[in-house]
What does this fold into?
Amino acid sequence: MKFFQKPSQEESGRVPPGQHLAKGFPVLTYGEDPKVSIEAWEFRVWGLAKPTVFKWSDFLALPQHEFTADFHCVTRWSKLDVKWTGVKVTDFMSLLEIDSKAAHIMEHCYGGYTTNIDLQDFVKAENFFAISLFGEPLPIEHGGPMRLVVPHLYAWKSAKWINGLEFLEHEELGFWERNGYHRRGEPWAEERYSN
It folds into this structure.
C-alpha cells in the first residue's frame, strides 16, 4: 500500500512545491516521547516578558475553538484538513506582559526540544495551542497533552510537548535550526534547509 500520493487537481493549490499527501498522519520524533501527567504539566513564560507559570487548568479556562488546518512536514509530506481543538495564540498572548524589545521567541518543550520563531510569525491569527486531534485528547506521539500548531510554517515549528516560551530581543536558533534546517521554514518558498 502506498503511504503517500500526489495531490488531485483540486488539491494541488493547497499543497506546497515538493510535497506529497500522506494517507495517514505520520509521526516523526527525534528522541523519546516525554510522558507528562496533566497534574504535573506546567507552561512557563520568561525572558523579555513578565515571568509567569500556567497550569493545565489555566489553559482549559481560556476559550476553546475548533480549527481545521493543513499540515506540512519538511520531510515532503502534507496532510490536508487536520481537525484540532485548542486555544488561539492571540488569546493566550493577551494574558502576558511582554517587553516592547521582544522580537523573537524560543519555544521550549518537555524532552529538551527547542525551536525558534519570529514574534510576528507566532502571533498570526491562525496559530493555536492544540489539545485535541480529530475529537480525541491529543495523543502523546502527536505532542500531547499540548502542542503548538503554526500552519503557515513547516511542522517542526509546531512544537510538540511545548511547555514554555522565552521572549528574546535577538534571534537564537533552536535544535533543528542549529543542525542545518532553515531559520524560518516557509513551505511555499521551500525553506527546508539553511544555505
The first helix runs from residue 56 to 60.
